[in-house]
Specification:
This protein is an all-alpha fold. It has a domain of 141 residues: Formin, FH2 domain (Methane Monooxygenase Hydroxylase, Chain G, domain 1), CATH 1.20.58.2220. It contains 11 helices and no strands. This is Formin-like protein.
Length: 314
């Protein structure tokens, strides 16, 4: 596509003609201030210039060309950027809600506390009213005297026997795994990128008021975009604030300080606990099946022995 046509499409912000990659390439080829100064004073024959210089001159026909191209790129990427960002925020909010409202998880935590107090009976730790969140991962470290069963296995065995409905507590936490991959720092950076991006758009809109006819379509299109984008950014800022409050509330729910035990640590710990719990339960089931088969085999062998004895007696 000839450069004049590309620039016309860029000024019209026509996303059906130019995509993000093409606009990014145009930005890369924008002349520097020094290059523009050199070419600005050139009065010779244009045909004597190289293709690169001719390319620069074409771009320079548009006031603040690089700024306009960056604004266009922001507009192209805006909807997907906001959609993806909202998805992450909603995942954080959902995970926090699921964990805090899971009655099954709450009951399991109570039973872990009871179990810990029972094991530590007679010691200073035998009357605890709570435990640190990372203690959940230590259940696999404590083993029985025969070294075959961990405290996690025992917990699963007790639950399977007395409260089997709690064994599938992970079903309550459908957003936990996705949430564990989200970094709050990255969300903060993304929020700032969206806010600052819109600020630059508004600055360019204001600056383009004095551009004249060359930016007429650009101004009109950009003005419409700003009106829509501002409302979306306000909405996403509110959602971001809610996610931040929920992330802090999640740590507080477990009696942890959000500054010392941030959202990422809470979700990672819970996800690991879920995985260790499910693994222990599966191992218990396999062990029970092996024992059942062993008993069955012994019974069959005993039955054969009885039959043989009867035949011998006759």
């Amino acid at each position: 596509m000839p450069l004049p046509d590309m620039m016309a499409a860029a000024l019209a912000m026509d996303e059906s003609i130019l995509d993000a990659d093409q606009v990014e390439n145009l930005i890369k080829f924008c002349p520097t201030k020094d290059e523009m100064e050199l070419l600005k004073n050139y009065t010779g024959d244009m045909d004597l210039l190289g293709k690169c210089e001719q390319f620069f001159l074409e771009l320079m026909k548009v006031p603040r060309v690089e700024s306009k191209l960056r604004v266009f790129l922001f507009k192209i990427q805006f909807n997907s950027q906001v959609t993806d960002f909202k998805k992450s925020l909603n995942t954080v909010n959902s995970a926090c809600e699921e964990v805090r409202h899971s009655l099954k998880l709450k009951e399991i935590l109570k039973k872990i506390l009871y179990l810990g107090n029972a094991l530590n009976q007679g010691t200073a730790r035998g009357s605890a009213i709570g435990f640190k969140l990372d203690s959940l991962l230590k259940l696999t470290d404590t083993r029985a005297t025969n070294n075959k069963m961990t405290l996690m296995h025992y917990l699963c065995k007790v639950l399977a026997s007395k409260s089997p409905s709690l064994l599938d507590f992970h079903v309550d936490l459908v957003s936990l795994e996705a949430a564990s991959k989200i970094q709050l720092k990255s969300l903060a950076e993304e929020m700032q990128a969206i806010i600052k991006g819109l600020e630059k758009v508004k600055k360019e809109l204001e600056a383009s008021e004095t551009d004249g006819p060359v930016s007429e379509i650009f101004r009109k299109t950009l003005k419409e975009f700003v009106g829509v984008a501002e409302a979306q950014v306000d909405s996403v800022k509110d959602l971001y604030s809610v996610a931040g409050r929920n992330a802090d509330a999640l740590a507080l729910y477990f009696g942890e300080d959000p500054a010392r035990c941030p959202f990422e640590q809470v979700t990672a710990t819970l996800l690991n606990f879920v995985r260790l719990f499910r693994k222990a339960h599966e191992e218990n089931l396999k062990q029970a099946e092996l024992e059942r088969k062993k008993v069955q085999k012994e019974e069959m062998e005993n039955a054969k022995g009885v039959n043989l004895n009867k035949k011998g007696f006759k």
